[in-house]
Fold:
Amino acid sequence: MSGISRRNWLVGGFAAAAGGAVAVKMAARYGLLPPDASGIYGPGTALTYAANRILVGNSPAREFSRSQISKPFVNGDPPKEATFQKLQSNGFLDWRLQVDGMVSRPATYSLADLKALPARSQITHLACEEGWSYISEWTGVPLAHVLSNAGLPPQARYVAYQSIQKDWSDFIDIAEALHPQTLIAYGLNGGDLPVGNGGPLRLRVPRQLGYKSVKYITRITVTDRMPKFAGDYSWYAGI
Ligand SMILES: Nc1nc2c(c(=O)[nH]1)N[C@H]1C(S)=C(S)[C@@H](COP(=O)(O)O)O[C@H]1N2
Ligand SMILES: [Mo]
Structure:
């Protein structure tokens, strides 16, 4: 089943079990509404979120064995921005990741800084909404670690992230951001993360569709409001 049809199936199942508007009320009662459900994204997203949180909860994405690794796809062109090319020509020594917003200790990391933090590797499935997918090993520092270094206030609800590619930004809720499998990734299949797959740095969100794993990230911002959404797809892309 592709990510999208599976998602529709999940939503359909939940809606059938509880019935449209009633489902939304039930979801609210049981704490299953997304952090901002009242807004512009409507019952569709609310139901996707609720169905996922019921069926998947906070459970991890499946992890695979090395023998199941398949050839990575590359979706999209590498950045055309001159700033990117300049950074690349210098081996990304000057690449910086800024961590800011509602945190008590905003910080800026180089790749070396990030690599000095506790690393985690995991072999997971990347599924694009277009229907293709692959399994590979990602290495990086858990986003949760960087966020806890930065100091999260209790009112923090979303984490937004920005690519050096201007039109690629996205966000996840705090539950996803603190999930131990959500990585700031700099490695793929035992080597450096290739530029085609988001090198030198991308977010890897293995419990959601591929488009949430934004490549070439330069900034992570903690907020208490749903950020303006840049993409064409649902903000919640649980699979
Ligand atoms: N900056 C940036 N991030 C991006 C994209 C992109 O084109 N630019 N494509 C997204 C989509 S739709 C998918 S499916 C995955 C694909 O990752 P891959 O090219 O490493 O397979 O990256 C996501 N992140
Ligand atoms: Mo995608």
Remarks:
- The beta strands are 97-101, 107-109, 120-127, 133-142, 158-163, 169-173, 183-188, 191-192, 202-204, 217-223.
